[in-house]
Amino acid sequence: MNAAFTPRLSTSTSTTASSSTGYDGAASASSPHVQKYRPYFSAREIERLSAKQRGKLSVAREERGRQQACGFIDAVGVRCGFPRGTIATAQMLYIRFHLYFPYKDHNYMLTTRDVSLATLYVSSKLHDTLKKPRDIILASYPLRYPHLIAQRKGGVLDPALVDVAALEAERGRVLGIERLVLESVCFRFAVGGGLGWVVKIAKRLKMSKETTMAAWRTAVDCYRTPVSLSYPAHTIALGSIYACALLTLAEPRPHDQEELPSASGATPDNSPDQTWRRLAAIMGTAGSWEQDMHASAAEVNAIAQSTLDLHITILSTPPSDPQHALTPSPTSPRDAPSAPSDPSASTSASAAIRSSIANTAFRLPAYWTVQTLTEMKVYLRERAPVGPGDGDGMEVDGAPEWGDEGGEMGVIEAQEKEEERKRRRGMNEGTTRFVWDHGVAV
């Protein structure tokens, strides 16, 4: 991968000024604690960190909770008028946050709702689309308390019905969690290219406006998955285009199909179906395009599989699950449904707000079910190309897996370091120094 797109990452370690040769596990409160920023994690690292923070939650329940939070961030972000880049970054911050902080932490009273609002607030700062915490909280009220707007014509929230004391208490919690969110990114106020890469790559691949929009919607969904923590924005854009091609073709083995002439006599390049077949054939195998695009077929394949996992999770979620109460909003504010003006519709106010909201920005063809999506994922795994990264995220220089060096002692030392980081995180005692490499590309 070209050096311009390959971050040179530092090992995420904790050191003390009083100990330069090792870690003694009992540093004093006055000793500085160093935490280095890591923009990317491998898939194994994400799974290991997630397993520590999920506690007794099952993997399926954790994924459903993540989608509930990302859907809530999506819905509130659109109601605030935030651009898609701000919403995508907020979703990435939420996923990253729970690599460091557990889902249930009674010390900080962390809840899915408060953490979601805090990440949206931090993201608004990073993208210079700032809104006050109070405005973001009020924007979430119609989703959380639909009865407050059912009493008003036009679906407008009545400020007089809001409990000022409760609003101020929630604002204090959001501002408190903001610090923890900033700690998870080591106070690095920088954002990547985001969704703009989809348009740039689409122009280079000579995709039509229709196919570009479909790929862009797929990229919006990708930021609801952990791939944003493993790959840079341009690789996610390529993976989104590949995933969109597979989902749009709606065939069990699209790579085995030959290109057919268009029935209307148009050239293959002008036919959306033939465009998707061409892109699936190119990105599904290793080739010269990998060097041109600074990515590998293995990475693109891994992102496509993660997108399939997202759709499988959403389709397999029971209707009674709370996730359906906080589904994502439309892709843009122009698509937002309006609430009914009839106050008598109070019993269906929540459904009226979200009646036309789909679970994902990309609309799945009717062909896809949990079974067909699973079959497609198995098919992709069977023909997964081998390349740099091999679908395991960005390579991390100098960051061996736990136990790779030092045997059992290496595992014990790593666990001690992790416990010390957990003890210090979010605390005021001692000094914590957050550092990062200035040359890291995101």
Give a written overview of the molecule.
It is built from 16 helices and two strands. By secondary structure, the chain is an all-alpha fold. It has a two-stranded parallel ribbon with strand order 1-2. α5 (133-144) packs across α7 and α8 (196-204) runs antiparallel to α9 (209-222). The chain starts with 31 loop residues before the first strand and ends in a 7-residue tail after the last strand. InterPro entries: Cyclin-like_sf (IPR036915), Cyclin/Ssn8 (IPR043198). One of its GO terms (molecular function) is cyclin-dependent protein serine/threonine kinase regulator activity. Residues 1-30, 314-350, 384-430 are annotated as: Disordered.
Give the C-level CATH assignment of the domain at 39-191 and 320-361: Mainly Alpha
Q: Which value, in Å, is the CA radius of gyration?
A: 23 Å
The unreliable regions are 1-29, 259-268, 323-358, 395-414
Which sequence of SSEs, written as H and E, runs from N to C?
Answer: EHHHHHHHHHHHHHHHHE
Approximate helicity band:
40-55%
CATH architecture of the domain at 39-191 and 320-361: Orthogonal Bundle
Multimerization status? single chain
How would you describe the shape?
globular
On the 0-100 scale, what is the average pLDDT? 74
Give the CA-CA distance, first to last residue. Answer: 14 Å
CATH superfamily of the domain at 39-191 and 320-361: Cyclin-like
Strand-residue proportion: under 5%
Biased composition (Low complexity): 10-30, 328-350
Region (Disordered): 1-30, 314-350, 384-430
Protein name: Cyclin-like protein
InterPro entries: Cyclin-like_sf, Cyclin/Ssn8
